Amino acid sequence: TAVEEWKEKNRKLALLNVLTFGLAGYGYRSFHSLKQHNKDNVLFVYKVGESIESMDSLFVGIHQLAVSGNLVGYPALPRISLLLRWASVATSLLTLPVLASDIHKKLAYTDTGRKHWRDQTGLPVFFFHQTELCGSFVFILVALVYRPWGIVFVMGIIWS
After folding, report:
1. What is the pLDDT of residue 118?
2. pTM, entire model
3. Which of 1, 14, 91, 101 has a CA positioned 20 to 30 A from the CA of residue 133?
């Protein structure tokens, strides 16, 4: 998205975005969108990119929590690693439903064919997507049963 900043003639932010590996652009766009009460398309691209990483991190984290200390050859995680892994899972369980809720709101207010969605935004949509994520943890059991390639099959099922 430094390219987007460059196209918009915001050269200093584009350079700063490259030097901070995208954090400056995300922060600038977030602050700007908060002031205007509207998320622009570039911020949306940032959030989608974050959600891809978050989804991968979620399933790898849940898989690691499931196997560490439970399968032969996989020792239990040290306390700090365990804490960090659970924190990673928790942040993924927050960021993914927030993106889904944002997509839902964006479609409800920009697509005229979905005006009936406007009264279905907010926490119910957030919790619906969160329960969908938690329900998909069943696939981790499939991954454990069909080791060692089970996680690859599961991720293919999820992303298809």
Report:
1. 65
2. 0.65
3. 1
